[in-house]
Amino acid sequence: MPAIVVVIAVMAMFALGYRYYSRYLADRVYGLDPAYVTPAHRFADGVDFVPTNKHVLFGHHFTSIAGAAPIVGPAIAVFWGWGPALAWVVFGTIFAAGVHDFGALAVSVRHRARNIGTLAADVISKRARTLFLLIIFFLLTLVNAVFAVVIGNLLVAYPGAVIPIFVEIPLAIAIGQYIYRTRSAALVPSLIGVAALYFLIWVGNLYPIEITGLADALGFERTRDLWVIILFVYAFIASRLPVWLLLQPRDYINSHQLFIAIAVIFAGVLVGMDRIVAPMFNDVPAGSPSIFPFLFITVACGAISGFHSLVASGTTSKQLDKETDARYVGYAGAIGEGSLALGSIIAVTAGVAATRAEWEGLYASYAEASGGATRNFVNGIASFATNLGIEFQLATVFAAVVVISFAATTMDTGVRLQRYIVQEIAELVGWRRLSRHLTLAGLLAVAAPLTLALLPGGGDAGYTFGVLWRLFGTTNQLTAGLALAVIAVWVLRRRRNPVAVVVPLVFLLVMTTWALIVQLREFVAADEWVLAPLDAIIFVLALWLIVEAVLALRRASGQPAESAADSGPGPDSSGASESEPGDTSQQAVGAEPAAGAGAIDDRR
């Protein structure tokens, strides 16, 4: 199968989904009103509430939701065949992710741009806020753990990426200082930063840095574990810095990398006319995870992601100029994410191997598929880059830097948001000292994912990552389920047809609970007494979510129609924790730090 044929067909389907289905959602389900005064105008303050051109906001929102997850998930999911993986990416994007992302943005705008956690308390029940906090805590724990493992494995496999990745930190700080002090636009400095980063890629390729000897001297069985510890030390420090100093300028640089990477994939496929050599349906070995339900939690952010609701309701809703722009920003943003997942599938089925036998050697088992997902993506990107005249070794460093950069920004924001969640939970249970103690809350936010990332088992590419990725997928889908439940109840209260929301909600909850039950049995049988209790807790939260959603939908069906006007006690009154000195971030559950009109949202 020529890869370019698949690319064109999928992009055509995405275009049709946006043209027709998103129009249906806008007119018949969410009822967008071009005359509605959005929170960006009503509460305009030049900091968080800033009316923004829809094209600028689209780029801002898309960059915020595009981390490494839509790369890693699909790269693993082709283990069951590229046909099922691609089908879920396409239909999941059009009928689930688009509904979810668009809906979270629309509902937040109608509720004074408040985040999804606060809306869960208002729209479903006060218990739903507690449910939200617990789900997000486990989700962030797993996100931070799996992406630390992703980065650690890549730094071991591609030592040429070490110099550009770590020099990017002071480079971003310098750019952040320049933008902050001169109040200048970010475009030109960030482009200069990209140029400097690509020069560093060339330098890193010439002078790779390996720490295997140091890891052995310190007694580490896996070199990756030393990198994981270094990464969490960095993330703890970064989470204490004002967002304008490091996170935002890094995001500016990485936003350009995102579009460059997608361009390299599609241009390389077009020039090289590569063919998909992987099987459409793979005959997986006995004992492998079943395609049902695990395909639908493995792809995760490549089809639908609960993280997107945090971005949409966190700060994107505060910048929407017109309510009708939500269709373009929310739904088209989901399509952008699906396009990145498409690029990942093409890279690991057409770029990474020349023959089917060679491909099957890379995907001989689920453990090899999950452990080698990022490596396969990197090599696939490098193969496409060689079609454009770039030397293969240099291209692998470029691709590794792209993946690490996305994963690192996810981890940066994840640790920061995890600290907010720890403080919020402490406030909820009355531990006011912990809720105000930033250092202790930060240490707790780092300790949980660090422990999971260092779990023994299977070597550098062993079962630990594959298992953690599946747990991440289930928790991420629970978050999406919570957001869809809020959206469905809101739509039903307005006496609009909620079927477009309820169908993906039910599908997600069925697949999630099914996967949790199967995994729990596996963990108990294998005497995994760390992962089994974690799976059990997430399973209880899933059942809790189902009960809350059913009760809320029943109540909504018996209530009089709700006014289309917005509701709620003011902009984002979510009980945010106190801000740290010098950090102007919005410490609301699900809200990404914002420091100035150009603040970047949270990542997956």
Topology overview:
Blueprint: H1 3-29, H2 39-42, H3 54-65, H4 69-77, H5 82-110, H6 116-123, H7 126-157, H8 162-182, H9 187-206, H10 212-217, H11 223-238, H12 247-272, H13 291-298, H14 306-314, H15 325-351, H16 356-362, H17 366-371, H18 373-387, H19 392-429, H20 432-436, H21 438-453, H22 463-493, H23 499-525, H24 531-557
InterPro entries: CstA, CstA_N
Domain CstA N-terminal: 3-515
Biased composition (Low complexity): 563-604
Task: Give a structural overview.
- It is found in: Cell membrane.
- The chain crosses the membrane at residues 6-21, 62-82, 88-109, 130-155, 161-180, 187-207, 227-247, 259-278, 290-311, 331-354, 392-411, 438-455, 467-492, 499-517, 529-553.
- This is Carbon starvation protein A.
- With 604 residues, this protein is mainly α.
- Helices cover 71% and strands 0% of the residues.
- The longest helix has 38 residues, at 392-429.
- It is globular and about 65 Å long.
